[in-house]
Amino acid sequence: MNSPTAPIDQLIARHGQDPHALVQLLREAQALEGWLPRATLVRIARALQLDLADVEGVAGFYRFFHTQPVGRTHILFSDNITDRMLGSEALMADLCARLGVEPGRMRDDGLVSVDTCSCTGLCDQGPALLVNHHQVVTGLDVARVAELAQLVQRQVPMAQWPAHWFTVEDNIRRADVLLGLPLARGAAIQAALQRGAQATLDEIVASRLRGRGGAGFATGRKWTLCRDAPGAQRYVVCNADEGEPGTFKDRVLLTRHADDVFEGMTIAALAIGARHGLVYLRGEYRYLLEPLQAELERRRRDHLLGPAILGHDGFEFDIDIHVGAGAYVCGEESALIESLEGKRGTPRIRPPFPVEHGYLGHPTTVNNVETFCAAARVVLGGGEWWSRIGTPQSSGTKIHSVSGDCERPGLYEYPFGTRIGRILEDCGARDTQAVQVGGPSGVCVSAFEFGRRIAFEDVPTAGAFMVFDRSRDMFEVARNFAHFFAHESCGFCTPCRVGTELVARRMDKLAQGRGSRHDIDVLFELDTLLHATTHCGLGASACNPLRDTVAKFRPAYERRLQSLYFEPAFDLDAELSIARRMTGREDAGAYLEPPR
Amino acid sequence: MIASTEVSSGGSFLLDGVEVPFEPGDTVLAAATRAGHYLPHLCWLPDFKPHGSCRLCSVRVYGRTIASCTLAAEAGLQVEGRSDALQAQRKTLLQMLFVEGNHFCPSCEKSGNCLLQATAYEMGMEGPHFEEFYPDRPVDASHPDILLEFNRCILCELCVRASRDVDGKNVFAIGGRSVKTHLLVNSESGKLADTAMALGDRAMDVCPVGVILPKRRGFAVPIGERRFDAKPVSARTELVPHAHPAQPGEDTP
Q: Distance (Å) from the C-alpha of residue B54 to the closest C-alpha of chain A?
């Protein structure tokens, strides 16, 4: 470990001792030993000339970094509501029992640890799990879990596990312009070069294309602002941190249409005058890194990246891939940039916005994977053609990641303006009670609203479409989402850090049958506060599922209330459990009320 | 989404109907405070770069709620600063900070000098409202002269900023995430004794609560005769230095 050729030193040398590479370096260093011993943090801090506490602060921020040992096989069950609906909780309990391990705790011999993580983006083929922050296993069932326990117990290397476990299906059910045949490689760049930078940007503006990550900001305007911002260098960043639970369209685009994504980034580079591109790939999609890098290498060979693209002197552009480490908040563009710079993923104070002051202070355009695919199509087909698809305020098509209670989960692409009911019919959903459109931060749509349409002017979406039939308990759906937000809060501002935790605890109190109407009033109060006062959009939208489900599925809450007035959160009988243990008493007299 | 970051020239805006003059580069909070108007705040000090984490200074502008410490002052802006709804929101934010940590005012050396406590009195907070979290946070008593009482930390990062930007010592940083976010000490042992922290540091006197305390100086001024015992926090005057351009949200060059 102390020799100059130690693997950790080789990693540091490869990153040129660049402090901005800290997150990448921590990820690669962790792959060496499975966790990050303090000595490793000290070594990295010294090499990068950073303060140890800053390195520690970064390591402690990302869920996929471990500053305490984890098992040599570290298994994370995806804990999205759709995984739960497919039985993930029972399967995880089964695996833990077979391996003799407690959730969240390493087995004493260090062989294995089992825990949960936020959505892995495999909702159409769950339950799913992630092994050693690298490989995903899909389609879990009792038999697969039994075999998995044996392989782990016998210490069979992951490379020798059944290959079909790692199969990730694309499940494209309905293709329109984006999910159809991939573009001919280089065709869109060729078209953009023929038009020239300004005319290319004009086409994007004319297309009225809006960002596909959820907020729907006009892409042409974003690129124009970035191009016009003062600065010597500009950056194009692809947001592939697809962390919104229930969303998996970007995974498929990066698997099947990576060329379209890179093509779109290259067009953006031409339009704004950038020479550097970065893809922020979420840690859960680590298994896609090598195929994507191979694709980039092919494009360099074909002069679609690098100096003099397609022979045009002065058009130079290349792309690097940065892998995240388990932080939903990094989907927010300024937090994403902080993470790219090797820091904690705390959203920045805005203004200034990234188009003016982005990566390393340079003007930066951050766009969604799907937005880049769309931009490539716009350049080929023309802005006028794209703007005629969809609705007045929402041009083009949108890809939906459909999961939950339906016969055919997978990807469905429709023009904007499509009825929610139409998507439900196409995916084979029956007896549907509700759809969570856009993920936990989106909108919960109930049956009487299925005539509403997907569009920025009606029901906007970042792509998730989770279906719940009448057998589902919408309170449990909202409780799952409440825990998700509490888990993913960056911890920077008071209302989100404390508020998301208070919401999760209140929902647990209701789930235990100890709630009162007062608790629902407090939940409303927290919703209003978080919506108004948080530092970024994560906190502001954290109570959306709560608000929607209380309004639309109130009986699911009311049947949990023990009292219509007030029940304290402090449970005196539970607090007396320590006294009962110490005195060895379990008789009725040792309880204030008979045990429930 | 896009707002200009160009520094406006000076002028005045309206805070609850009262005209407040501002200088180029001012935030709403800085200008209001300089003019003697009280807007509650915990993570802001006039001579530090704004942070925007406590959210107590949030005001209503253009129908939206925005932290006034990061909001650039603009001529003609109509700011709602102390409506009943905003004051109620502030009280709830304070209650959140109280239940998140372990705040036992009667036995706290900072009682009477504590900005959190004084602001809670000012906002009429009479109880915690929420259930307490009672976190387990060990203290750091390793330093010969200084005690770190993490139970009271509200994560304002003023000590982080003071130690880095004024003292040049980088003694503190932020670690963890979500409700487990916490203050870190920058040394291999993680203990304050192994840092360069000293009694004369600026980081010693920026803590709004009772985390960073000099040892062997307990209750030198009796409770009842302390700073906020004499005057409520709203009557406190803070010297706000004159703004320099490009202050809000701007990184150090």
A: 5
